[in-house]
């Protein structure tokens, strides 16, 4: 798996509980969890992460879309619950809860889930190595990849910053809150402001670092060029959550849920332009490294517009159908965080097993996705039966 396969995961599920559940947000986070599993199921059969001899261009379309938004959106959804959680519990108690909910799973997964997952990749190149030798080499000499769990420590860092900001002033995010209240009637204004701020923080980082530069220290890793992008999403979410979020941009009866076709067009146009730029890079520029600054800048602009627009589209969809009765996503809501934590070794070992079968890429990816969902859900259900496990999972 290439580094892009770890670029889009999120512990939006590790948010503090609130008194009133928001069904649309619950469904949105569960939907995004399934998108994470889909992303990992199809990436071996793409140009981006071609680790299997089979290939299907449709999966490139999926990976380009998912990698461009779902990570940022998970930070946004996680941020929604940060400010009210800090206000209710106090910064120290809130941070203590986050250590238990984020740091503990990170440590456990770094020493168990991640080595088990990457052992499947190692066997493809070094079939003679035993797991104990691989595990010891990983944690002592490295590389020690983080897979999807890198999101946990980054989110914990944002939570720490949020606690510090709250101690400085509980009213620090009031401007975003007021913008959210205004966005109930005019969501386009919120969209424009969020897009401008996101672009201002993301584009310089991408141009400077490029798309493939990662900070790496043991199991701690994150893309250099995307750190500030994720931070803007998190704090915009936190600003919306300052007061009752159902009175602002995310109000079920607000304007945002009634203009979903607008968000669709706003997402489709930059997505198509991303493919135009990819064609230029491969067929005209010849995949140079590094890419010209003008190219990185144009790509970052299209990326940013698509990322914000598709997030608005997904939120608008789930807000519109908030009271649409039972959903297939509902039974998974309580298990979504656990599925995110345990799915990666399941996905990679299924790909290892499917590698030698002469099957079309669509068949391999479908089998991998369905079994990854099934096994990770069943394993999470079993783990949550352990006393005290539900407080973490």
What fraction of residues sit in β-strands? under 5%
Q: What is the terminal separation in angstroms? A: 26 Å
- Sheet with most strands: 2 strands, antiparallel
Helix content: 55-70%
Q: What is the number of beta strands? A: 2
Radius of gyration: 21 Å
Read across the widest sheet, the strand sequence of neighbours is 1-2
**Total number of helices:** 15
What are the main properties of this structure?
393 residues; mainly alpha; globular
Offer a quick outline of the entry.
Helix 3 packs parallel to helix 11 (227-240), helix 9 crosses helix 11 (227-240) and helix 10 (187-209) packs antiparallel against helix 11. The chain is built from 15 helices and two strands.
Word description of this protein:
- With 393 residues, the protein is mostly helical.
- The chain has one domain (3-391).
- 65% of the residues lie in helices and 2% in strands.
- It contains 15 helices and two strands.
- The chain has helices at residues 23-42, 57-67, 70-80, 82-89, 91-111, 113-125, 131-140, 150-168, 174-183, 187-209, 227-240, 260-284, 293-320, 336-354, 361-383; strands at 214-217, 220-223.
- Strands 1-2 form a two-stranded antiparallel sheet.
- The model is unreliable at 1-19 (pLDDT under 50).
């Amino acid at each position: 798996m290439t580094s892009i396969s770890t670029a889009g995961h999120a512990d939006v599920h590790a948010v503090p509980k609130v008194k009133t559940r928001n069904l649309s947000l619950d469904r949105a986070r569960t939907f995004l969890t399934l998108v994470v599993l889909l992303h990992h199921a199809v990436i071996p059969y793409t140009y981006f992460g071609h680790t299997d001899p089979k290939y299907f261009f449709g999966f490139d379309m999926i990976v380009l879309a998912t990698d461009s938004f779902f990570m940022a959106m998970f930070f946004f959804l996680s941020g929604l619950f940060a400010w009210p959680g800090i206000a209710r519990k106090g910064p120290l108690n809130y941070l203590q809860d986050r250590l238990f909910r984020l740091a503990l799973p990170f440590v456990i997964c770094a020493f168990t889930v991640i080595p088990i997952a990457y052992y499947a990749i190692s066997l493809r190149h070094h079939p003679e190595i035993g797991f104990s030798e691989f595990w010891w080499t990983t944690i002592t000499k490295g590389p020690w990849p983080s897979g999807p769990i890198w999101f946990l420590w980054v989110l914990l860092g944002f939570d720490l910053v949020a606690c510090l900001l709250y101690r400085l002033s509980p009213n620090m995010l009031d401007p975003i809150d007021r913008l959210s209240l205004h966005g109930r009637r005019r969501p386009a204004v919120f969209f424009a402001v969020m897009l401008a701020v996101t672009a201002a923080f993301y584009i310089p980082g991408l141009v400077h670092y490029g798309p493939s530069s990662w900070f790496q220290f043991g199991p701690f890793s994150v893309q250099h060029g995307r750190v500030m992008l994720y931070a803007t999403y998190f704090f915009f979410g936190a600003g919306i959550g300052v007061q009752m979020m159902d009175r602002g941009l995310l109000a079920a009866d607000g304007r945002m849920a009634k203009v979903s076709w607008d968000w669709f067009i706003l997402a489709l146009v930059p997505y198509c332009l991303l493919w135009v730029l990819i064609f230029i890079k491969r067929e005209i520029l010849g995949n140079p490294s590094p890419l010209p600054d003008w190219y990185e800048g144009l790509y970052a602009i299209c990326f940013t517009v698509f990322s914000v627009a598709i997030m608005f589209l997904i939120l608008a969809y789930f807000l519109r159908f908030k009271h649409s009765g039972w959903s297939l996503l509902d039974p998974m809501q309580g298990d979504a965080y656990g599925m995110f934590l345990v799915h990666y070794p399941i996905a990679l070992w299924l790909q290892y097993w499917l590698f030698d079968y002469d099957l079309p890429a669509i068949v391999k990816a479908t089998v991998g996705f369905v079994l990854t969902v099934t096994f990770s859900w069943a394993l999470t259900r079993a783990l949550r039966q352990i006393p005290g496990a539900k407080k973490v999972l």
